[in-house]
Amino acid sequence: MKKTLIIAKWEYIEKIRTKTFIISMFVTPAILLLFTLAPTWFNRHEEESTKAYGIIDTSGIYFNQLRNNLEKIKLNDEQPKYIIINLFDKKVKLNELKKSADLDVIKNRLQGYLLILNGGTDKIKINFRSKGSGSFDDLGKFEEVFNRVKNKIQLENAGVDTSIISSISKYVDISPIKIEENGKESKADFLTLFFSSFIFIMLLMMMVLSTGGMLVRSLLEEKSNRLIEILVSSCSKKELLAGKVIALSGLGFTQILIWFILGLVTARTALVPMEVFDNVLPMLGFFILGYVFYVSIFVGIGSIVSTDQEAQQMTSYISIILILPTIFAVSAIQNPGSTLIKVLSYIPFTSASIMMLRLKIETIPPGELLTIVLIMLVSIYLTITFSSKLFKIGILSYGKRPSVKELIRWIREK
Amino acid sequence: MLVAENLTKDYKDITAVNNVSFRVEPGRIFGLLGPNGAGKTTTIRTILNIIKPTSGRILFDGEPINDQFFNIIGYLPEERGLYKKSKAIDVILYFARLKNMDKKTALSKADYWLKKLDISQYRHKKIEELSKGNQQKVQFITTIIHNPRLIVLDEPFAGFDPINQQLIREIIISLSGLGKTIILSTHQMDTAEKLCSDIFLINKGKEVCSGSMIDIKKRFGTNTVRIIFEGDGSFISTLPSVIRIEKSNSLSETSNISSSLEVTLKDDIHPKDFLKDIMNRLSLTHFSVVEPALDKIFIDVIRNSQ
């Protein structure tokens, strides 16, 4: 036991000082934050400014009401979202009007303009002319407002009571609410759901790959310079393996701790929505289960490979399996009850990632949760048993990678 | 005392060590010799309990080697290497601690050996910043720092310059003088010849020759003398006591006017008699009985065993 701790301490200090570890500790979450949160952040910022739009309403029927309605839309800071300018002039030909309006758009004097032709007839045609295709949000708003205005005017012309008209034209938003068993409610927004579970899956993957990779590399080094022989003539293989696994888990937890602190700090800056931390404890549980499972697989791999290329090959296979659940993330959020997602959560290789996803989007019955945790625990026990057998023989075999048949013999050996 | 009894290690398709038995006395240096792939490393690994033999057993002071022996073993593997990114002193302390030394003793011993091997100035340098020779010195320290009773050295001199070879040789001899059981595996015969009191020659997993150095030299010695002289030595080959003559240039006294010869005599002729025969006919400047070099014995024995 004493030697196990000596080894664990050595391995922990030896590895925590490496550049790889320091880089993966800080750069990984930074990159993730950038990729997942930057788009939403930039969108929010884009909204912050008022935009000028023009309208050419050849019929003159809609302009005033359109302007009133559009200028009522406010930004977060209570500034109007749009300023609407009348570009129509009876004295100028339509073509000339279009030309000068287009120029205004190109010169960035206007964000875009609405061209309404054949107003008041059934053949009404409207173009939203702008430079880019980036103003989907604005297009949607204009469409919605125009149709409301058009309906209102038609109803008025038909002599319908104004109070009825205003009641009809009230627009109602539908907001999604996620129900949880204990009666709690929370706002479920697709992007937040996707990114918050995605971040956890990516963090798990990065952590498994970085620490697992470190373990494989250090085993390879010890194997190639025969340090391993000095080690196993100084302590039992069991002590050696235990020491290494403890050190690696220590590294993992150090990483989690630092990431957690980083997460809290960024949450305070409102860069990360607080929803990311919903259900964080059970997710952390699955994170740890997944981590231990994969790390014990890496121990086995590190024991049987004897070149860098082999190690890289094996590592890339594992990373594919690890990233697999993110492919299902979108469909899981859209359709949480799907059989595929259920099945994947029972398979130890994908279980941890899928469960971190499911914990975000649905309430999992305790029975199912317990079964999955049990499956994970049993799988971890099995991989540790197999890996330690591979370790005991593998660390002292050099040269050619053992065949599957040999591996089975190693596992069977007492 | 270390005893190996009927040691056999089978791998899937080869027998790496085949029914080998020997004993290593404390205070004597035991040379485990053999060509590449002879089974030296496998034998060492079994001795050190790194791998289990297929059959046979290893006893140290009458007890089978097991996990209790970790702390009394000092092992220097043939392929060297340490944790490259770590400081020399940290690496030494790590291995010392693994051998159950307490921190304080380990530290003072580390300083003692760093000084003795003249690398104190590299104490806080990273291993990768040291020269190959100095890295090897650090590794040598990790092998002996815990004052092990059983020391196994696999090619300990490889990579050292002659001065450092001498330094290491002196340390090994002094350890032997302290009554340590030392196994030295090498294929450098001159090293073995200078150090080992006992020899065990192995080839293809089998013992081919063993015993004390003195006995083996006697056993494989031929009746050969070396002479250096001035004058015409052509008559020597016609003497009835002579079997073979070889020119030898190994001695520095040889010059243009003097010749040096190695003369193999018939088994029943005493060198003294041969000396009498030639003494009056030549101006003799050197006469010595040639001991067989260990590498010659090695080559002969290995050839014969094949």
Characterization of this structure:
The complex is a heterodimer of chains A (414) and B (306). By secondary structure, chain A is α/β, with parallel strands linked by helices. Chain A has 2 domains: 2-41 and 186-412, no CATH class; 49-162, D-Maltodextrin-Binding Protein, domain 2 (3-Layer(aba) Sandwich). In chain A, 68% of the residues lie in helices and 7% in strands. Chain A has 15 helices and 6 strands. Chain A has helices spanning 2-16, 19-47, 63-72, 94-106, 136-157, 162-168, 190-224, 227-232, 237-268, 280-304, 308-334, 339-346, 348-361, 366-394, 404-412; strands at 51-57, 82-86, 112-117, 125-130, 177-179, 185-187. In chain A, the strands form 2 sheets. In chain A, strands 2-1-3-4 form a 4-stranded mixed beta sheet, with helices on both faces. In chain A, helix 7 runs antiparallel to helix 11 (308-334). Chain A is elongated and about 100 Å long. Chain B is of the alpha/beta class. Chain B folds into 2 domains: 2-218, 3-Layer(aba) Sandwich (Rossmann fold); 222-290, ACT-like. Chain A, domain 2 (Alpha-Beta Plaits). In chain B, 32% of the residues lie in helices and 29% in strands. In chain B, the strands form 3 sheets. In chain B, strands 6-7-8-3-9-10 form a 6-stranded mixed beta sheet, with helices on both faces. Chain B has a 4-stranded antiparallel beta sheet with strand order 2-1-4-5, covered by helices on one side. In chain B, strands 12-13-11-14 form a 4-stranded antiparallel beta sheet, covered by helices on one side. In chain B, a hairpin with a 2-residue loop joins strand 9 (198-203) and strand 10. The radius of gyration of chain B is 24 Å and the shape is globular. The chains are: A alpha/beta (414), B alpha/beta (306).
What's the CATH topology label of the largest domain in chain B?
A: Rossmann fold
Give the SSE order of chain A as H and E letters. HHEHEHEEHHEEHHHHHHHHH
* SS strand fraction of chain A: 5-15%
Main structural class of chain B: alpha/beta
Q: What would the average pLDDT of chain A be, to the nearest integer?
A: 81
Strands of chain B, count: 14
Uncertain regions spanning at least 5 consecutive residues of chain A: none
Largest interface: A-B, 22 and 27 residues
Percentage of residues in helical conformation of chain B: 25-40%
